[in-house]
Amino acid sequence: MSNETYTFNAELRTATGTGASRRLRREDKIPAILYGADKEAASLTFEHKDMIKAQESEGFYTHILTLNIAGEKVEAILKDIQRHPFKPKITHLDFQRVDAAHKLHTKVPVHFIGEDVVTKAGNTVVHQLTEIEITCLPKSLPEFVEVNVSGLVAGDSIHISDVKLPAGVSSVDLAKGADHDQSIVTIKANKAAPVEDEAAE
């Protein structure tokens, strides 16, 4: 895991409902909810400028975050982010508390390496999945899962079961049975370019 930390200041809010949320957004704030760890859900508010910057980093979606709420530091993961349909605005955030003794159920991104080798050989890399759903204890949460495609040729594919997940990390799909072993990536041959008639002069 990366040593980079993600800490954000949040305020508790008492006013809830559609009207209150609209007022917050007009003030450039984002309404949010924090739940989980067998505790009562808390309604929060974040500064929009802080979150709009944070969401540009992949780690915002995959790291354990520290929320500074009225002086109390709470560890959480981002579970959902809602955006305005056409404006560059975040409209709502959902966070889940992290308990060191309880497993997380989340998604981590797939990082593909060696794609240049495949494309230079005249093939196309087709991504079937860009995230893998996993469960693990917070201490084992990976930033991403790496898939090396450099040794693949046309017709080859890599499934979830082919990927070596970090120690303590399990695939949610594979736990459902072999028929849920989805393809992550496949390699397709590019169509051959038409051969020119060299005899024609």
UniProtKB/TrEMBL annotation:
<feature type="domain" description="Large ribosomal subunit protein bL25 beta">
    <location>
        <begin position="103"/>
        <end position="190"/>
    </location>
</feature>
<dbReference type="Pfam" id="PF14693">
    <property type="entry name" value="Ribosomal_TL5_C"/>
</dbReference>
<dbReference type="InterPro" id="IPR020056">
    <property type="entry name" value="Rbsml_bL25/Gln-tRNA_synth_N"/>
</dbReference>
<dbReference type="InterPro" id="IPR020055">
    <property type="entry name" value="Ribosomal_bL25_short"/>
</dbReference>
<dbReference type="InterPro" id="IPR020057">
    <property type="entry name" value="Ribosomal_bL25_b-dom"/>
</dbReference>
<keyword id="KW-0687">Ribonucleoprotein</keyword>
<dbReference type="InterPro" id="IPR001021">
    <property type="entry name" value="Ribosomal_bL25_long"/>
</dbReference>
<keyword id="KW-0689">Ribosomal protein</keyword>
<dbReference type="InterPro" id="IPR020930">
    <property type="entry name" value="Ribosomal_uL5_bac-type"/>
</dbReference>
<keyword id="KW-0699">rRNA-binding</keyword>
<dbReference type="GO" id="GO:0005840">
    <property type="term" value="C:ribosome"/>
</dbReference>
<comment type="function">
    <text>This is one of the proteins that binds to the 5S RNA in the ribosome where it forms part of the central protuberance.</text>
</comment>
<comment type="similarity">
    <text>Belongs to the bacterial ribosomal protein bL25 family. CTC subfamily.</text>
</comment>
<dbReference type="Pfam" id="PF01386">
    <property type="entry name" value="Ribosomal_L25p"/>
</dbReference>
<comment type="subunit">
    <text>Part of the 50S ribosomal subunit; part of the 5S rRNA/L5/L18/L25 subcomplex. Contacts the 5S rRNA. Binds to the 5S rRNA independently of L5 and L18.</text>
</comment>
<feature type="domain" description="Large ribosomal subunit protein bL25 L25">
    <location>
        <begin position="9"/>
        <end position="95"/>
    </location>
</feature>
<dbReference type="InterPro" id="IPR011035">
    <property type="entry name" value="Ribosomal_bL25/Gln-tRNA_synth"/>
</dbReference>
<dbReference type="InterPro" id="IPR037121">
    <property type="entry name" value="Ribosomal_bL25_C"/>
</dbReference>
<dbReference type="InterPro" id="IPR029751">
    <property type="entry name" value="Ribosomal_L25_dom"/>
</dbReference>
<protein>
    <recommendedName>
        <fullName>Large ribosomal subunit protein bL25</fullName>
    </recommendedName>
</protein>
<keyword id="KW-0694">RNA-binding</keyword>
